[in-house]
Amino acid sequence: MAIEVSSVPDTTASLEPLEKIDAYEHWQKSEGAPIVSGFYIQDLNALELGRWERKGGSGAIVNLEGTGGVNDMHVVEIAPGGASVPDRHIYESMIYVLSGRGSTQVWYDDKRKASFEWGPGSLFAVPINASYRIFNSSGVQPARYVAVTNAPTIISLFHNHGFVFDNPYQFEDRFGGEHDFFAGEGTLHRGRTLETNFVPNVHTIQLHDWKARGGGGTNVMIELAQNSMGAHVSQFKPGTYKKAHRHGPGAHVIILDGVGFSLLWREGDESRQKCDWRPGAVVVPPENWFHEHFNSGPDPARYLALRFTGLHFKQRGAHQSGGADVSVKLGGAQIEYEDEDPAIHELFERELASHGAVCRMKGLVPWCKSAL
Ligand SMILES: [Fe+2]
After folding, report:
1. How far is the CA of 45 from the centre of ligand 1 (A)?
2. Residue 266 Cα to ligand 1 middle (Å)
3. What are the pLDDT digits (tens) for 52-73?
4. C or N: which end of the chain has fewer Cβ atoms within 10 Å?
């Protein structure tokens, strides 16, 4: 005997789906500056910019795939003799100067301003929510900088422009208006970690041995302005490459000096993304993708990484770089040379030959046939 089922009216039939709001995307579009996306950028110096009122000059907002949406990069150019309008925001910002000279004023209280000068290669962070103005001191040359910010995370989380851009809170635990906040050498901690608020030139900053990452590499980790985000500078010798490793999203690797390439791949994926680079290039390794940097030119290669996570303040929920120089076989995040696909070394040898350079990996990579 059939059982009769009384029909239940579908109360959801006439309801509209809940709108998905991307507050960061709305903000980005409302700024009016060009929006750039992609896997990597070959030359930040040549990136085409458009008018960006908030920055008092021209600029572009860059979202590279490897950020996974956690952070972004603002490329800004201030005209000769120009200055930005005062700005402040609840998101963090680390600024690296590509070219030009100028000064920056920073304040919570406009009667107590910290002021400092910068030039090509300078690195600094505007303390969170401090007001700031950036001045180009040259009457002839434009000044171009990049700022890596956690605006995407902060704007998405609070989705309220008044809270993010017009908030009176002063983070006195980070910045007390000290006039010498951006002066001084900083403090070097164990583990090659420099705590400072200003680096005059990342091209010449003192680096320290980091044998475990290979490639005869040297490095300094940089913690700026009590930020949650962090930076580091690494250098490796001509004819060498560093060991592959992986970590969380958002590390903007900006090439400072040298010629070479990076390989990036998902675990188990045969095909690898290859990014050729020279100074001014930037690549962001996607979350958990292995990546490896190769110096195929005649000079040392040096890069600046501006990361989503720093070392001093643990970011809960964010993928940390723990075990960054420990083998994956021991639970770390690094592939030792002897565990690497031999095809990688073959590619490196071919690249070196095309630049007339020689391999210096003898004794490090078991199948390296170089005499050096
Ligand atoms: Fe990395």
Report:
1. 23
2. 13
3. 999 999 999 999 999 999 999 9
4. N
